[in-house]
Structure formats: C-alpha cells, structure tokens
Design brief:
about 120 residues; 5 strands; three-stranded antiparallel β-sheet; alpha+beta; globular; single chain
Amino acid sequence: MGYDIRACTKNGEELEIQHHYIRGHTFAINGTTSAHMTITYNYCAILEKVINEGIKSFHEKRVIETIDIINEAINKLSDDNEIDIWKPTEGNVKKALINLRELAFLIINSDENAIWEVS
C-alpha cells in the first residue's frame, strides 16, 4: 500500500499528460498518459522530516505550488539508495521525489492550474 498521488483539473477530472515512463511503486510497462504515481507508506517517516506534514500536505494544492517544496526536500536527503525499493532509506525517498518532480513538470506543461489529489 502507499500514497496514491494524482493530478486533476480544477473541476476534479483526472488529467491526461504527455506519454511517460515515470515510475512510482507501480508503473505501466508501456508507459502511460496518466498524471499518477504511488509512493510507499514505508517512506512516511522520512517524508515527514523533509516535508512539513508529509506528502499528504500536497492534497488539493496546485501542483505548481509544490515544486519548490519538492526541490527543498530532495536537497535535504542523502543518496543512500538500496536495491530494495521498499526499504525506507533517504536515497530511496529522494528517487521517489525526483520522479514526483518530473511528473509535476509534465503536469504543469499540460495544465498550470492542476491540483494534487493524495489519498
């Protein structure tokens, strides 16, 4: 299980974006146009240290308003990656946030007013 993070229009409709291969903890083998990714709950404690109130704080915020928050969080984390992506290391969390930032840029290119839905 994990955080389900997706972008929607102001009207609450799920946003379609440029075809991509961005990976969360689930991914589409042939890529997708969905503005969606997941981040495992295993990362919760680390996310709460680098993002005030954790990733849930992004819920109903404009995607464009979270870019600086994501960048600041990435800069606070070390690169201690593990092959086991489920292991809560700073490096694994950093990789997930880098992917979230990449997704955010694609979202903003499609709709500058898009908002995050986090569940």
